[in-house]
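Q: Give me the 3D complex with alpha-D-galactopyranose.
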Amino acid sequence: MTRPKPLALLLCVLFSMAASQPQAQTIDPLAPTGRWPIRDGSAARTPPMGWSSWNAFRTEITEDKVIGAAEALVSSGLAKRGYVYVNIDDGWWLQRRASDGRLQVRTQLFPSAVVQGSADTSFRPFVDRIHGLGLKAGIYTDIGRNACSQAYDLESPNLPVGSTREREVGLYGHVDQDIQLFLKDWKFDYLKVDACGLADFGADQSVVAAHAYRPMPPAIVRGRPAQTDASKIRGLYEEVAAAIRRHDPANAAFLSICAWGQADVRQWGKDVGQSWRTGEDITPSWSSLLQSFDSAAGRALYAHPGAWNDPDMLFIGAGEFDEHHLTEARSHFSLWAIINAPLLIGYDLRQAPQALLDIWGNSDVIAINQDPAGHQGVLAYSADDLQIIVKTLSDGSKAVALFNRSATSLQATLTADHLKFAKDAPIAVREVWNQQALPAFTGEMALTLAPHETRLLRVNGKRQLPGALYLSELPGLVNVAVDGVRQSELDPTIRRGMSPWSGSRSDGERPVYSGWGGAQADSAPYGTALAVGGRSFASGIGILSGSRIQIKNERRFARFTASVGIDDSTRNRKGSVRFSIYGDGRLLAHTRELAFGQAPVALAANVAGVNIIELVARTHDGSAQPVSTAWGSAALSEAAGQQ
Ligand code: GLA
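A: Here is the predicted complex, encoded as C-alpha cells.
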C-alpha cells in the first residue's frame, strides 16, 4: 500500500470532517427556501414492500433460505402485488479483511459468494440471481464498528470471526469503501443501516471486554435524549447518504435508517434516508405491536413520498400473529397499511399457509398502503382501547381503520366528523377485507369490533369544506422543515410494554422515544385539543414556535387559509408569535405579533401558481422556551375565492 502524501492526507481529513458534519444549515432555519428538500428517488415514492430475513431466521440465514423466499415471492404472486425487496439482515458477514478492509461474505452460508481463484468474496452472483427473478436485493450493515448481533446474538454460530479489527464489520471508518462495495460492485438496491455500534459498545458494557471489542463511546443512550448526541448520529448517517449519492448516481437506492426512534431521528430521518425506524424491535406479541404502532402513528406529518416512518417489519406468521390468530394478523397488516409503513414480510415463505398468503396478498389493503398520494393515516379518535385512523386517498375517498386495542369486544361509532365529511350527506362504505359494500350512512355509523379486531373501511362522502381540504388531511404534502422542538422530550403516550427480554426485572418500563412536542395533525403539540383564545379547532396543525412547515402545492391549490394564534395549552405564556405565509420564498401574508389568550386571527394567502408554500411561526422574545401555536382549520382551496 502506498502511503498518502501529507497534502492528500490533509484534504482527506478536511473532506471527511466536512462530510461528517450535519449539512450546512442556513443561518436562519426559518427563512423560506422555496425548495422541496426531499430526495424523491424512484425507490421510495410509496412505502417499500418485500421480505426480510430477520424475523424469520435471525442470524441463521443461508442462501437457500433467502433464494427460497425470493422464489416464493414470485410463485405465490406476491411479487406482482409489489413485494420486490429481498433483504438480507444481520448474519451474512465473515469478517473485514485485515489487508485492505474489504468485507468478506460467510461463504459457508452463501456459497455463490466464492470467487474462484481469488481471496475475494462477492455477493454479485447472488444479487444477479435476485435481479434475474425481477426482484431487488437489500443488505444490512451498522453505522458503528460492530453490529447488533455482536451484542445480542452471542450464541449465534454466524458472528464475525478473527481479530478485534477483523470483527469490525460496521461502516465506521469505512463508509465510502463499503457503500461502493454494496451498491456499485455488488449492485444491492437497499441498505439497512443499524446503530448498535454507536449504542451498545461503550467501555462499561460487559460484552466489550468479554469479546475484546474496541470500545466506542455510545452516541445513543436509549431513552436518554440529554446524553444522546443526535447531531453526531445524524452526521454519520448523512455521510452514508452522501456515499450513496456518489455510488448510486441513478438515485435508485433505498436507505433504511435503523436508530429505533432514538437520536431525534423523527426530525431528520426524512432529510437523510427513505425510511427510519420509529421504535425498538417488534416481537410477535400484541403488546409489542401496540408499542411499535404507537411509535409511528402519532408522526403523520413527518412522512411523505420519499420518506416513511418505519414501525419495524411485519411479524405476521409468528406468535400472536400466526395462522391461529388471524384477527391479530389482519390487524397488524391493516395498521401497517394505513400508516404507510414499509411492508416487509418476516416469515419463511417456502412454507407459508394460504391463510397468511391471503393476508400479505390482499390487494385492496396493499392499495391503501401504496396509494400514490402518500398521506399517512391520521388519528381521528384515540383512546387506550379504541383508535380510529383516517387516511386520505388520491381518488378523494378515504381509508378508515377502527382498531380495537383491547381484549374485549367494543362498540365503536364512526362519525362524519372523523372523516371530515359533511354530516348531512350520505357516506358510502365498503369493508376492505371482504370487499362487501355496507349500507351508506349519514352522520354516524355503529360498528362492532371483536377483541383485537381492526375493521378496515373505504368511505366516500361529501367533503366538509366544499372545494377545499384541511391541511391535516394531506400529510403527504407536508414537510416539517423545522418543528421548533429545542430540547428533546420523551413521549409519554407511546405504549410501554413489558420488556420481552428482561420481563419485570427492572423497576418498570419508562418512556424511551423522544418526539414529545412535535408537529401534530388535529392536535396541539403536547396532545391537548387545539384551541386559541378559548375557541376550539377540530382540525388544524399544532406546532411549536420557531417552526417552518413546507407544503408541496405544485400549483394545485389556489388559496391557503387558517385561523392562527397561540394555543391555549402553551407552556410559555409570555412569548408572542408572528405567523407568516410564503409562496416560493416570497412573503404572501403575515399577522402582527400575537399574544397568549388573544382570539384567533384569520390569515389567508393567494397561492395560485405556487409550488412550495411555507408556514412560519416565529417568536421574537428570544426566550428559550417555545410557544405552542395553532394553525387552526388550516385548509387549501381549489378556487381562489373559496374559504
Ligand atoms: C437490531 C434491529 C433489528 C435487526 C437486528 C439484527 O435489533 O433493530 O431490526 O436488524 O438488529 O441484529
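A quick observation: Confidence is low (pLDDT under 50) at residues 1-23.
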